[in-house]
Amino acid sequence: MRLTMIRSSIPILLILLLLFFLPCNISASDEASLTFQVHPYLPASELLDRFAPLTKYLSEKTKTKIVCNISKNYTDHIDMVGQDKVDFAFMGPASYIIMTQKYGLKHVLSRLEVNGTPLFQGVIVTRKNSSILSLKDLAGKSFAFGDPNSTMSYLVPLSMLHEAGIRKDALASHVFLSSHQNVALGVLIGDFDAGAVKEEVFFEFKERGLKDLAWTPKISEHVFVTRSNLPSEIVNSLKSAMLALSDKSILSSIKSSVTALVPADDSDYNNLRSIILSLEQAD
């Protein structure tokens, strides 16, 4: 009788031991999460602060933990989104086009609306006391770009220079300074004769001595996309939450002039797609 009781207790003991030593990553308390990736158009710490309210809002609406990360650079960001290594992402328009050319289309969630419009511009700038009055005057001058994959600090301004008959080899020199702010500061302190920045940065530094030389065409605003294989119910949940967002404190945290997140479609970026194609053909 005693032997029978011992034998019957062995399976129970084994089950208890297995439960005790199960890996913690399959515990019911381990919350599923989504990764939200942002391109590094500003310092990482500033971007994390700007997107924290939106991340919290989307987490509450989707009832899913969301972790916001900042990519190291534009190229890494494009590849991570294109290779479906993140669940959803915030992308600049040019990075979005480059990503779709390389990896194919993704689910588009929404785009920014800024001051009531989902379109934005960039500015080719110089100093207020500069003798440069037109793009043609940039021949033989030094020029500062931001990142090689940036919409408004490289690709669109480069297209404008081409249209004005100024190729990069016609410039005295050109450099990439990574960020719009670096470009503005480089021009202001006299390291470069001119540069290209987005309108937000131009207005930030205008009173400190920047002068607008030429404005870019209007381009569809920054866009939120998901990985191609994200389950449709999650895609729809994120999209619904974004389009329903009306809390001004969350929107203005991204940028003070953001007024809404509005519907977007891949076709909204066709004019930029044409600009990038013309640059590729020019090479």
Structure description:
With 283 residues, the chain is of the alpha/beta class. It folds into two domains: 135 residues, 3-Layer(aba) Sandwich (D-Maltodextrin-Binding Protein, domain 2), CATH 3.40.190; 95 residues, Periplasmic binding protein-like II (D-Maltodextrin-Binding Protein, domain 2), CATH 3.40.190.10. Helices cover 42% and strands 22% of the residues. The protein has a six-stranded mixed sheet, with helices on both faces. A five-stranded mixed sheet has the order 8-7-9-6-10. Strands 5-11 form a two-stranded antiparallel sheet. β7, α5 and β8 form a beta-alpha-beta unit. α2 packs antiparallel against α9 and α5 packs across α10. The N terminus is likely disordered.
Quick overview:
This protein has helices spanning 2-20, 44-62, 74-82, 93-103, 151-163, 180-188, 199-205, 232-244, 248-254, 270-282; strands spanning 33-38, 65-70, 88-91, 107-114, 119-120, 122-127, 142-145, 173-176, 194-198, 210-215, 219-220, 223-226, 258-262. The protein is an alpha/beta fold. It folds into two domains: 33-118 and 220-268, Periplasmic binding protein-like II (D-Maltodextrin-Binding Protein, domain 2), CATH 3.40.190.10; 122-216, D-Maltodextrin-Binding Protein, domain 2.
Which properties best describe this structure?
2 domains, 10 helices, alpha/beta, D-Maltodextrin-Binding Protein, domain 2, globular, 283 residues, six-stranded mixed sheet
